[in-house]
Amino acid sequence: MELIQMKPIIIGHRGVAGTYPENTRASFLAAAKAGLTWIELDIQPEAEGQLVVCHDHELGRCSDGQGRVDAHSLQALKQLDFGGWFAPEFQGEQILTLEELFALLHEYPIAINIEIKVDETHDQEKVARELYRVLSVANMDPQRVLLSSFSHEVLTICHQMSSVYPLAVLTEKLTAADSKLMKEIGAVACNINYRALDEVTLEQLHQAGLQVWVYTVNEPEHFTLKDQVDGIFTDYPGRFI
């Protein structure tokens, strides 16, 4: 399955994370209302396995809570403030479930790169199964979804479970294992740290039929390959548009 877009795609990183609290309702609505065609967000399970939108496994940086996300029930997580850390006007932002996120953006023509945030403590098959359940219930158009992860295990499980939604391998720097995995799972893209991308690697990935999406570029003038890549994740989409 191919991702068809103008080049390069500008992807709002965790919504519009430079000017709104990341991965929140306010941030995603700002991205949608600004007319972005793509956003990126992070999901992970809470204590009972429901998928919530949050980047860190620990709560301390982006909320007034403490401990791991998966040590708390959704009910407990909903009592926490996920906006006040960023600025007082965002106080009271609640964590979103993936289902709530889909409902929030249903009326907007926006596509979503879902990063699956898992570590060795998670049952990765269970996480993948719940992700596909939520996607199915929401009846998400496969052209509006890209699933990505640093975890080779969870991407392999996703590939084995379904071929409906396109996959991308996330990496800090392209490795032989990354290249092997992308071939095995039929990945459509490599999402790579822009600092680790040079013209040789870019050409290698394009020759393999892969799109190249780079993260996280906040100063366009410092990234010389911006007109040659297929997608750019940024906290400040306005600087590119």
TrEMBL record:
Gene, per the UniProt record: ugpQ
GO aspect biological process, one term: lipid metabolic process
InterPro entries, per database record: GP_PDE_dom, PLC-like_Pdiesterase_TIM-brl
Hydrolase found in the keyword field: yes
Upper taxonomic lineage: Bacteria, Pseudomonadati, Pseudomonadota, Gammaproteobacteria, Vibrionales
EC number, UniProt record: 3.1.4.46
Keywords per UniProt: Hydrolase
Molecular function terms from GO: glycerophosphodiester phosphodiesterase activity
Organism: Vibrio quintilis
Any Pfam family hit: GDPD
The protein's name: Glycerophosphoryl diester phosphodiesterase
Domain GP-PDE: 8-241
